[in-house]
Every structure is written in structure tokens, then in C-alpha cells.
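$ run holo --ligand "FE2/S2 (inorganic) cluster" --emit C-alpha cells
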Amino acid sequence: MERLNLDSLRTIDSIVDRHRGEPGPVIVMLHDVQDSLGYVPFEAMEKIAAATGTSVADVYGVVCFYAQFTTSPKGKHVINICLGTACYVKGAQALIDETVTLTGAEINKTSEDGIFSLDATRCLGACGLAPVCIIDGKVFGNCTKETIVAEINKIRAAEKMA
Ligand code: FES
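-- output --
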């Protein structure tokens, strides 16, 4: 397992210290770690468990239960594709396949270059627009392969300029 850098460890320590003794500290600490680092590393789970008298397994269980927490760093650009029933029926799987091919990111993983994360989500509550994708927070209803290709190309072009 890759070791965390000192800054990240200090960030975790200060979050744990800040919330020690508060009610429901596990969730609050996890939330702050996710916000600060973009994910919850295993070291954070260990520190939170030690500070709250919980087992690492229980903290890990909380991380897995809530979709807002992730255990690996997200890419710079996040592509969410809804795999709820309505979106699935309207061809969401093909959008996922296209995204995997174009970005190299597998479902719920990040591409090796760290640029893209691909998340398959449950129903986003916009079934009338199926299939629905959210790319860097922007919602695309009636999403097509062409939409995916165009947006990924835009991101790649912007990354080259950066
Ligand atoms: S199934 Fe995709 S928005 Fe509802």
C-alpha cells in the first residue's frame, strides 16, 4: 500500500483532534477527511478508530455504507453515468463502455493517468431525461455516445493546454 505524505497525515491528525469528543465523531471525521483529501485513506480509518474507541472494521463499514466516501483518490474529472433502470433501458451500458474505452477508467475507478474517474450511479431522479450523465457536475440528459466523446475530447484538450 502506498504511504501517505506527511501533509496528508497532519491533515488527518488535525481533523481527528478537532472532532474528538463530539457526538457522532466517526461520520464527522470521515466527512472532513473526504473533503480535505478527496478520499478516505486507510491510515485515516485507523486514526479515527483509535480516537473514537471503534474498530477499524466498523469505521471501514461506515465508509462502505455511504456513497459519499471513497477509499481511493478521484481523478481530476469525474464522469457519473446513471445505471438506474430507466437509464439502463435507454442504453446507459453503451455509454459506460464508451467511457471506459476512451478514458481507460474502469467502473468506479480512476484512470492510470489520474485524469478521469468513472462512477456508475443509482437513479439520479431524472429518469425523464434518461440516459443521464453528469460530467464534472454538469448534467447531460438524453446523453449519447457523441456527447461523451465530445466532452472527453474537450477535457483532454483543456488538459493539454494546462
Ligand atoms: S434511472 Fe437514471 S435518472 Fe433515474
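-- notes --
The chain has a mean pLDDT of 92.
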